[in-house]
């Protein structure tokens, strides 16, 4: 009890019992239980005359207390109802002191508390003939899934042909053998806390203010949810039915999270009511689960100016306060529980003396953590932070349920096993390299952790476009591509996160007794482009069938299309052992080496038209590639190369023979990057060229040139090589703020060439501008930006004729404008009418479909860096989000006849962490724009070159696997020398931890 409360109680004038209190505790409850017991024994001993000192003090206390009671009792002769009520309340609090929410036996539930008569699932639904992953494993035979009132009732073997009978209507859907999974569970999301499009006034993610410092355990996400955030609809369209919403990570203890279902307006009155989106709707408030977000490392450090030393100390200091309060409560409760059967007068006396249950609102949540009543989710990256957080959790006796982000957890699986209590590691499959604590990732993290028996979940961190929760499944697909086994990968987005949030008796499984949250997929959920055709939440279908049909050309019950143009199966990388790699690669790099590569199943070699022709004659037979002295001496069916092979074998040439299973040969990919070679860690200026923010549209002399600041190695280069990217184009600036972004450079990614010797392919590629919100930073308004651009083109023809602006005005140098909004694009279309010579290129394109016809007519090309866009800011709120809600951006561009290429260009921060996904991104575009694989390869090769007027690259990359899907691996890549055209090995079995330049 706090002192104030004690005083108030004593001053309250409530009457007290005549009887003395049952025992006296001078300084209760500061005393430990053990001491109190001793003390009570002493009281007994007085009566036997054994301890005079104790007896005297007790007598004095009895006297003092008794005098007060007597004084009060003159006014009122019986126990105070108010004290009695307080006694009962305190007793009730103590009885529930360590209560944790109930956990029904999985499979035993017969009803879903979210279901309601008025707005719940009506009738019985049967999904017939499903290929089911049930949350743990694939069921080895087709099944029929029966659900009603929002709960799964039965799963029958399809072959058994069970007829479902019910008093209710029974609706059967034949899903034709399609893949079905439980609704996905995302254990880390921020939607509803901040809406899309984002605005300052609707962002309630972090409670950061001078009063609270780094501790806000008492704030609750539930108090800030906007139950109308349309991002939920987008997220569910990716199959994510349940999300744990947690506060942001600025604070060491950030506040309580809450799980939701992503079903808007699902309550009785279809209103945007917070209660209606809660996963635990229908469960009494005090029986619901509680979650706490902790954060450690860079974020609190940056927000509060602490070091990690301060982070840990302040955390301990806070936890200590809670621990002391908990101790008081425990002491109080053991006393009151003994007193529960006393006479009323004595009960009142108890409260009179000991006060009410010791309670402190600001520490309530933290005490509940120490009582194991709150599930702790911890934001952490580095190994030392994981260790510190486990150390502190042991000191204070609470369990860490999940480590989130944990980009570097893969380095310490044994620490996690030994020190953690089955802690789940909730990671990103790829997102990393954007800050120091995310700078030592492994794309194999899921696999490494899983191999060590550690539960792995993928999570979105949904907040900005690049963490869009809609694509949670693709993270599992990527984890699988990097060797996380198939079923483990699917568990990582279903049952593992469900367990980590203690809801694995309700969600995360598609089994009887679980909520009827079910996803029917168009293809294997671990393949590139896998998209839900229907999503059920609490048994209710969520997707609009007409939109699904329009965007995907099929529905969840339509007959399977025969031979679809683009269909992908999950693919796992082929990796060689260190030994084999060393052997092969040291030979490959030797001068004068020749190569025979067979087992090539597909070749897209536009950059060698004559080879494309001969490959086409091979008639579906595997191809063989023979490279002799840097020249291709044969490419075609194996038999057709015998002659060439024999010839150079006879010459005694050194030859490296590689036999592939599913070989693919492509031109080297060309990436338009965000910051490759210009900055290494987005948030650490010391790792980059600096901020090129002083560039002025009116002053060509102010332009910054990337060619003067370029570096040629770093972890993003390694990822570029992993993806078969042999050339890249980078803007000069690490973190451009303003309209003018500078002049880009084209360079080789192999790290095998130096700046002084061939790494730069073209010094000046294009002038880059950014039209949109960023324009305001330098021009004040977007409209001024447009006006200044017109003036710039005018001056380019006049006084700036001899400058870069002159070259832009003459159309000699492309003008690349980063732009997503349809009205901004319209301004560019109008501008192009007035300055037809300008080679105008749009980079971005979220809303391009709205103006696609005009773009085509104006001959403006698009480098689509928003293949799967998000409506995350107001200016882009009409972003065309793609299947199953809309058609894809690429499909509209293709239909309108716009010339376009693909890039991965993160607007939010200068980082190229997924540059290796350029191929899969082209695969995704191909699938939903109905373009051939050949054409989709052009999107990341020849189309980039032709749009930017670059020289045609003769680079070749040999992959094991299909590079349009996740999980292909580069075997070899060849650079073609700009002058001689000779091929030389640029990379050999590239790895993500490989430094480009070495001595
Ligand atoms: C289930 O679907 C598969 C794949 O479409 C099909 O081959 C099979 O005949 C179907 N089974 C039944 C019982 O309809």
TrEMBL record:
TM helices/strands, residue ranges: 38-61
Region feature (Disordered): 1-30, 95-118
Residues in the signal sequence: none
GO MF annotations, alphabetized: allantoinase activity
Official protein name in the record: Amidohydrolase-related domain-containing protein
CC terms in the record's Gene Ontology section: cytoplasm
Keywords attached to this entry: Membrane, Transmembrane, Transmembrane helix
GO annotation terms (biological process): purine nucleobase catabolic process
